[in-house]
Design brief:
258 residues, two-stranded antiparallel sheet, 10 helices, 2 strands, elongated, MCP_dom_sf, transmembrane, membrane
Length: 258
């Protein structure tokens, strides 16, 4: 009876079944090429899913984003204060400050038409969808590696977010400049906008602040903190958000096109 388990299976037979269930190392871990192919399909599916989810949301929120971005861009335009040199009645050269018109939805619509309120909508949606899909894909790939305890998973998650933010930052620069109506970014497509920031060496303007903002806003974005703490959290990081937007609007050289 000592050779019989409580389930009625002899010890020898049970050991044989256990040995059959033990897989060789090459079967435990998926081959690298299967992981790569699966990651590409996962990225495409995540991108399409995010586009379907974010498209309607950004359609409603884009006018507010355009107005906010242009108000921030006005700070760059007015610092230092623009001055106009004139000649008075006595023939002396004088300089006076140039007063810019206030930014309003009505002014944007009058100057650029109704579509001006949705400037940069395509680039913004592509950026957010690609960043979310890339972060999810990178995170799932990192899970195949060791160190999957609580702190390891958190580190891999933040690392995936950092990689996705860095890779898609040129799109972030493009969508911000399109929304602000910068010369050279009005009436162009996403591809031409990306090519322009690459040509002007502006693709990674404000990257450091964007990375810091992404990490600091993660607790709210992924509901790690709840309302009303989340509202206070976002209010605390708003100055960094503002500086990040201003950094993406800064140009390394003056625009040479009309």
């Amino acid at each position: 009876m000592s050779a019989i388990m409580s389930s009625g299976i002899p010890v020898g037979q049970q050991q044989a079944q256990t040995q059959q269930l033990q897989l060789p190392p090459e079967d435990v871990h998926a081959p690298a090429h299967l992981i790569a192919v699966g990651s590409v399909f996962e990225l495409i599916l995540e991108f399409l899913k995010e586009c379907m989810q974010l498209g309607p949301l950004y359609s409603f929120s884009q006018p507010m984003w355009v107005l906010k971005t242009r108000l921030l861009y006005r700070r760059i335009q007015t610092f230092p204060a623009p001055r106009l040199q004139e000649v008075d009645e006595s023939g002396n050269a004088v300089r006076r400050e140039l007063q810019l018109q206030p930014i309003t939805w009505r002014k944007i619509r009058r100057d650029e038409g109704a579509l001006g309120l949705w400037s940069g909508w395509q680039a913004r949606m592509c950026h957010q969808a690609l960043r979310a899909g890339l972060a999810q894909t990178c995170f799932e790939v990192l899970l195949f590696m060791p160190w999957n305890d609580q702190w390891g998973i958190l580190t891999k998650f933040l690392g995936a977010m950092t990689v996705a933010t860095a890779v898609t930052h040129p799109l972030d620069v493009v969508q911000t400049r399109m929304a602000a109506g910068l010369p050279g970014y009005q009436g162009v497509g996403v591809y031409h906008g990306v090519m322009r920031v690459m040509r002007d060496n502006d693709a990674y303007q404000g990257l450091g602040r964007s990375l810091a903002l992404g990490l600091l806003s993660a607790p709210v974005r992924f509901a790690w903190v709840r309302y009303p703490l989340s509202l206070a959290w976002m209010a605390a990081v708003y100055p960094l958000d503002r500086q990040s937007t201003l950094g993406r609007l800064q140009r390394t050289r003056e625009d040479t096109e009309g």
